[in-house]
Rrf2 family transcriptional regulator (Maribacter cobaltidurans), 144 residues
Amino acid sequence: MFSKACEYGIRASMYIALQSLEGKRVSLKEIAEEIDSPVAFTAKILQQLSRNKIVDSVKGSAGGFQIEKEQIKKIKLSEIVYAIDGDNVYVGCGLGLKKCNANKPCPVHDKFVAIRDNLKNMLESASLQEMTEGLEVGTTYLKR
C-alpha cells in the first residue's frame, strides 16, 4: 500500500521523535542504521521530510535531525505519507489498474474505496506521538 520510501519515512520519523523526546538529535547514519535503510536513500527521504517541515535538520558538529516536542503531538501520519508518496494511496486502484474509476470500476472498486476511506481517516487522526507511545529502541518497529 505504501512505497518502501514511505515505510522508511514513517520509521525514521518515529525514531527521530523518540530521540527528540529524550532531548537528542540523531545523525543520518544513525537513522539509516536504525531503520535498516541505505544511507543515500535515507538522506533523500529525510530531505523530503525536512522540506515538508516534519523533521528539522540542524547543521554543524552538534547537528542532526530532530522534531520539536510540541510538533510530535501535532504531526499526523497523513502528513508523513503525503510528504513521501503524495496522495497516491487515496486515489489508486486496489488492483493497480490504470483505467479504474467510478464510471469504469474494477471488480473490487467499491470495496477498496471503503478501505481507502478508512485508511485516510486513520492516517489523518493518528499522531506521531500516538505512534511512539510505549515504543523503545529495540522494539519490533525499530531495528535494534
Remarks:
- Residues 4-21 form the longest helix (18 residues).
- The chain is about 55% helix and 5% strand.
- The chain has a mean pLDDT of 90.
